[in-house]
Design goal:
Shape: globular
Radius of gyration: 17 Å
Order of helices and strands: EHEHEHEHEHHHHHH
Strand content: 5-15%
Helix content: 40-55%
Domain HTH luxR-type: 148-213
Number of strands: 5
Pfam families: GerE (PF00196), Response_reg (PF00072)
InterPro entries: CheY-like_superfamily, NreC/VraR/RcsB-like_REC, Sig_transdc_resp-reg_C-effctor, Sig_transdc_resp-reg_receiver, Tscrpt_reg_LuxR_C, WalR-like
Keywords: DNA-binding, Phosphoprotein, Transcription, Transcription regulation
Largest sheet: 5 strands, parallel
Protein name: Response regulator
Distance between the termini: 39 Å
Length: 220
């Protein structure tokens, strides 16, 4: 059973998401909160698998709430998916740097939300393809200064190749197809790269891949 906690200051949004999630046999909404401060307290109490957190809220916003969750070892199992009415790149980057496993806009179709919750619960969360393309476009037109990433030199050639493909928004199966290896081997390469680069999840891996210079816009 996937345990989900909702944090959003709009009651109608929360009730709509809860009604949708409660229809699924493998998903349970364990609690909900109307602001980030209350949400953090409930997350510590319930330790959900997935926390769906609105980006703009009173008291503690979604970015700061995510940052505090990522910094707390006791909450390592909690995968944060940021919800927003906006798909602007600066919000996406802030969310991923804070430690979010994914970023979704609220106008997604129900099937995509359910899919995102299940993917996040597996620890394989990543951005929707449209958001990934926006990030890539951002780096193409306005690259950020590169920074040295701890562990970058430790990556093998195959791990670097896998990270580059992940940065293009590819799934494990797609990475496997490109590298002509099994999905399990692809996942192993990606997980080892995340460990060496000390990234919390695949979403942070994408940002680091660009900001470290491991992947450059001209690769696309």
């Amino acid at each position: 059973m996937i345990r989900v906690l909702l944090v959003d200051d709009q009651p109608l949004i929360r009730s709509g998401f809860r009604a949708l999630l409660d229809l699924e046999d493998d998903i349970e909404v364990v609690a909900e909160a109307g602001d980030g401060s209350a949400g953090l307290a409930l997350i510590k109490e319930h330790l959900p698998d997935v926390a769906l957190i609105d980006i703009r809220m009173p008291l503690v916003d979604g970015i700061e709430a995510t940052r505090r969750i990522a910094a707390d070892p006791a909450l390592a199992q909690v995968h944060v998916v940021i919800l927003s009415n906006y798909g602007m790149e600066e919000y996406v980057l802030d969310a991923l740097r804070a430690g979010a496993a994914g970023f979704l806009v609220k106008d997604i179709v129900p099937e995509d939300l359910l899919h995102a919750v299940r993917v996040a619960a597996r620890g394989d969360a990543l951005l929707a393809p449209s958001i990934t393309r926006r990030l890539i476009d951002r780096y193409v037109t306005q690259p950020l200064p590169t920074s040295k990433a701890t562990g970058l030199d430790e990556l093998t050639r195959r791990e670097r190749e896998a990270v580059a493909l992940v940065a293009q928004g590819l799934s494990n199966d797609e990475v496997a197809d490109h590298m002509v290896i099994s999905p399990l081997t692809a996942k192993t390469h990606i997980n080892r790269a995340m460990t060496k680069l000390r990234t919390r999840d695949r979403a942070q891996l994408v940002v680091l891949a660009y900001e470290s210079g491991l992947v450059t816009p001209r690769s696309h």
